[in-house]
What does this fold into?
Amino acid sequence: MKTIAVLPEGSVSHEALLHLFGDEQVELLHYKQISDVFLATATGKSHYSVIPIENTIEGSVSLHMDWLVHEVDIPMQVEWVYPSIQNLIGRREEFSTSTGDIDFSKVTKVLSHPVAMAQCLQFIRSNMPHAELEHVGSTSEAVERVKQHPGEGWVAIGTTLGAKRHCLDILANKVTDHDNNYTRFVLIGQDPLSLAISSDQDKTSILVTLPEDFPGALHQVLSAFAWRKLNLSRIESRPTKKRLGSYYFYMDVLTSLDSVLLPSAIEEIEALGCQVRILGSYPSYSFGK
It folds into this structure.
């Protein structure tokens, strides 16, 4: 049986993983911190780890990307995009009016993961501008802490699964500021993974570090993909952490490493003096789009 490290029960990561595997039996290891999720696979405690790396509204999860690049050397084996549906969670009896509506003025504190909180700022400002905002390690941890502090006016932003697991109520459904709120997850591990469902497409993620003192190097790198008609779905610069002004480029190429054209493109880029690191070549799935 596959063992998979993931953030706590009821988190978006947990909900997304259950959707990806469906009825397939897997053993889950839950951790409060994303660093422990990474290390579970790095140290052999789990076969795979679930890592959220990008969100429609907030963009890249920089901390997680840096872990993939600087802290561990574990390839991506699967990617999937899943809708991040956030809800306001608490005890209904604490906030109900005589008519059964929710009195948001009674909310004293809102807890959630910083990315989830950022996805719901318009709702918070419109309904609870007076409330204290507190960031925690995951949406599930936020729900758990609300459960542990009854009668204090605390609420959490989290998933339906999280509310169910901790026996709390949904005070307001779908409180994200935009309807098109999706999160991109990757499953990292040393072994390729085969799923029963058909993928939407294949993708390869690479890191390219440009040579110093090479004017126009990035243009030539992009040209290696362009004339082969290889589509880049993402390109992002991140600091190498070696010195100020030194960057690598993270790129997603919409093809498999087994294709004819991509290996030759990489060879051309390396001939320019660039360093290329393969982060993974994997199937990509989309749910709810």
Observations:
- The first strand starts at residue 3 and ends at 6.
- The chain is about 30% helix and 30% strand.
